[in-house]
């Protein structure tokens, strides 16, 4: 727990010392470096899913390309990625290093390009996201590719968005859900009205969840086994924490955004996109109360809170109010991290953190 807090506060310290207006690249580079070291230097037990990735990497090293392409459980893109890495080294630590470099690079690039406050984004990355990233590494590799897809969509290229989404699904098929961004599920002239509509949609989905699942497994019967697996169980406590965290960020942030008053078209598209991302983070966190598997869907959207938060804070005109809200969010996020770390460390398996040399 202490090493995560150290990283988060080091980001704040570096940001406060150098100032992001003149040293934005330097701060983002620092965020990348610390994030990469978290991935690369961890022991194979850090992250609940990491032991599976570790053992399967050895399988990729010992089997033929035919088995890699047709005879194992993971998606084709991730499988090829692992097999190619085995030509560099058969040590599974190579996978942790390479995946960490990729995830940290994409996240840092997105922070640099879209965050209104890279220091705050870095802080939120370490207290809200990196534990999950160390756990569901493959999902976060897909998410990292989706960041490129999102960038293309914000820039107005739906075709390139689709291509990048398809690539992301070759690392984790849940990435296909991100196509929801192309659907006009919630649009309007005012964000506050869209917020009310989004909450209504989420409530309806929660109330009619069983009907939706029945329709879903009828269309995709290969996912029926989730209904009776550990992923088919409810997770009220964990979901409540996520709903409280991302729901409040979504609701509070909406109060400070004014649709139609953005500086340019790209800013308007960015604001609208992030608004919907937070809506979906709230929706799928809510559905996780009914079925745990939806948490894997929620992580496609919830990490974008590290960009959403500085965005709406930048719209608060009064400096003192902006500082107060920022401190409240930072404190609340830190509290969430501490509560989960102390009471429910098994949720991610990333606490306590262990360096790979500690096991020797």
Q: Which descriptors would you attach to this protein?
A:
mainly alpha; 0% strand; 360 residues; 16 helices
Structural notes for this entry:
Helix 1 packs antiparallel against helix 2 and helix 7 packs across helix 8. The chain has 360 residues and is mostly helical. The longest helix is centred in the C-terminal third of the chain and has 25 residues, at 319-343. It is built from 16 helices and no strands. The radius of gyration is 20 Å and the shape is globular. It has helices spanning 2-18, 20-40, 50-62, 65-70, 76-86, 93-114, 118-135, 137-154, 158-169, 191-207, 209-219, 236-254, 265-288, 294-298, 305-313, 319-343. The mean pLDDT is 87.
Using only C-alpha atoms, the radius of gyration works out to: 20 Å
- Helix and strand content put the structural class at mainly alpha
Report the strand count.
0
Largest sheet: none
Overall spatial form:
globular
Sheet-strand content, in percent, reads under 5%
The total count of helices amounts to 16
Which percent bin holds the helix content? Answer: 55-70%
> What average pLDDT do the residues reach?
87
Order of helices and strands: HHHHHHHHHHHHHHHH
Low-confidence region ranges: none
Distance between the termini: 21 Å
